[in-house]
Design brief:
There is one protein chain. The protein is an alpha/beta fold. It has a single domain (1-381), classed as 3-Layer(aba) Sandwich (Rossmann fold). It is built from 15 helices and 15 strands. The strands form three sheets. It has a seven-stranded mixed β-sheet with strand order 5-4-3-6-11-15-14, with helices on both faces. Strands 1, 2, 7, 8, 9 and 10 form a six-stranded mixed β-sheet that branches. Helix 5 packs across helix 6 (106-123), helix 5 crosses helix 13 (342-349) and helix 8 (227-236) crosses helix 9. The protein starts with a helix and ends with a strand.
Length: 381
């Protein structure tokens, strides 16, 4: 009945259907309906605004285990060396060295930005005045949170942009010329997915959640997919696979939107994305390989089901092989990505003696921690 009413525009007794941005802008609703993707996203942004998002005591043990904090300087120096060589070979002296760090954790982004800029300044005097490092949130923030972020910036070469690459007008951050887009640990994992289900008419339905704030109750229904969900399903699901009625799967709707925005507004970008890798199959492979519903595997694919726990972030651990395919498809061959382990990348670009000199400390323990890392990198060439 609920789907029937929505389809024919009969909304009188139904809670309003809201998206993430609308939910962030209002605070007095007693009930509302939201697609599952936006509900998880809204919860994550709320936690981030309360300052709890990257509190180690509030995070999943997997997130803490794969943190780069113990070897962050070595990762930043290796990344800076790669950018320096690539820039000198392909862009110097016709363009400046532009860096865009997209973040969820502002403190991590500031540390990374400072280390990148300081390293480039020290190794090449020709770059003086030519390195520009901007920091942009993954999601558009509310105004009070923006002022808190601005107060954290102490480095004169860093600039925090008061907008996000998602939930905002993407034309605002159009960038001409080459730019290195950096996604440090965690950003890919916070791009929320849709849960879709095959109906009896062999069409995909999107999961929606009705939220009763006063009763602290959530109920699930499936209805017509919105535009983003429909596009994501068309891109991700192979036409040759047959799915019986009742089949369910996650699809990476926000990741598709994110890569599309990058391709359209920063067409000459080179991507460096670092995150926790998924070792199990993703998307349609979940159904075709295991013949079971995705919703029964929420704890394997989506850490912290929002129906059970709303004070901890929701993660979707990416399958880097699938992310690479998705990125290459959206960029239509203009930018091609490759996947490396963090260990392989840093071993190729690291100079331990130089880093120890710059940092003025013994980094042998940091190097040891780094060699044990299981993180992976998606890097465009």
């Amino acid at each position: 009945m609920k789907q029937y009413l929505r389809r024919f525009g009969i909304q009188a007794r139904l809670p309003p259907l809201l998206n993430t941005k609308q939910l962030l802008e209002v605070s007095s609703l007693t009930s509302f309906t939201v697609c599952y993707r936006d509900l998880m996203e809204w919860n994550n942004v709320k936690i981030a605004h309360r300052g709890k998002f990257f509190n180690p005591h509030m995070q999943d043990p997997l997130t803490r285990l794969h943190s780069i904090h113990r070897f962050e300087s070595l990762v930043s120096h290796s990344l800076a060396r790669w950018m320096h060589v690539d820039y000198k070979l392909n862009s110097y002296p016709y363009h400046d060295l532009n860096i865009m760090i997209i973040y969820m954790d502002i403190n991590q982004a500031l540390r990374s930005g400072e280390m990148l800029v300081d390293y480039l300044d020290q190794v090449d005097l020709q770059l003086t005045g030519r390195v520009h490092c901007n920091l942009m949130q993954l999601y558009e923030s509310i105004q009070p949170h923006r002022s808190k972020i601005a107060q954290k910036v102490k480095h004169p070469r860093l600039k925090v942009l008061n907008r996000g690459i998602l939930l905002s007008n993407s034309e605002q951050y159009f960038t001409e010329g080459p730019v290195y887009v950096i996604l440090m640990n965690g950003v890919l994992s916070y791009l929320s997915c849709d849960l879709i289900k095959m109906d009896e008419n062999h069409g995909w339905q999107q999961m929606y959640v009705d939220v009763d704030v006063l009763q602290n109750h959530k109920s699930v229904s499936f209805g017509d997919p919105d535009d983003l969900c429909r596009v994501a399903a068309d891109i991700c699901i192979p036409n040759h696979l047959h799915f019986p009625s009742g089949s369910e799967m996650f699809i990476p709707s926000r990741m598709i939107q994110f890569f599309h925005n990058l391709s359209r507004t920063m067409s000459e970008h080179k991507l460096f994305a670092l995150d926790i890798p998924q070792t199990r199959p993703w998307w349609h492979k979940l159904w075709s390989n295991e013949q079971k519903h995705a919703s029964r595997f929420i704890q394997k694919y989506q850490f912290h089901n929002i129906f059970e726990k709303s004070e901890v972030e929701t993660l979707f651990i990416p399958d880097f092989a699938q992310v690479k395919t998705l990125y290459n498809h959206i960029n239509q061959g203009m930018n091609l990505a490759q996947v490396n382990s963090l260990v392989d990348f840093t071993n190729e670009w690291m100079d331990l003696k130089e880093s120890a000199s710059f940092l003025n400390r013994d980094i042998s323990l940091e190097y040891q921690y780094l060699q044990d890392s299981k993180l992976e990198i998606l890097r465009s060439t």
